[in-house]
Design a protein that fits this description.
Layout: H1 2-22, E1 23-26, E2 30-36, E3 39-45, E4 48-51, E5 57-63, E6 67-70, E7 74-77, E8 83-86, E9 89-92, H2 97-103, H3 107-129, H4 136-145, H5 147-157
Antiparallel strand pairs: 1-4, 2-3, 2-5, 6-9, 7-8
Length: about 160
Amino acid sequence: MKKYSGIIFIVIFILLLGIWQCFFTVDQTEQAFLLQLGKPVGGVLGPGLHFKIPFLQQVMHFERRILAYDAAPAEILTKDKKNLVVDNYSKWQIADPLKFYQTVKTIEGAQSRLDDIIYAQLRVELGCAYSYGSGFREKKRTYEKSYSKKQSISSRLWY
């Protein structure tokens, strides 16, 4: 009997480990999906307890909350050839984690893409429309004119 108790203990331990690997949880602040051999399977999973096939499927978790990205200050040349140091930040959210994973893979990749898009748009807006000596009223009118353009850019940033 003692000879079999060690084998039974090992088998029970392996079964419990396998069962533990089958289940995973998704927090309320996250959204997730499954990858099976590197390809997305099923849809987006909401909060709760979920099942996966161990060693064959991998869970990808992404934030559901609004994320903040604080960009480093950069110099922008205005139309009257003056340098402005512009510091900005942006708030963004992952709307579709499958599309997000297929396009940028990680949050760092998304922040890199956001950085490129935001700085390019800032250079266009501030470099063309803002001169160093102009007043605040002129600047306000310029930004009000470009509001619809910024809205279209902001809709492209939501993944």
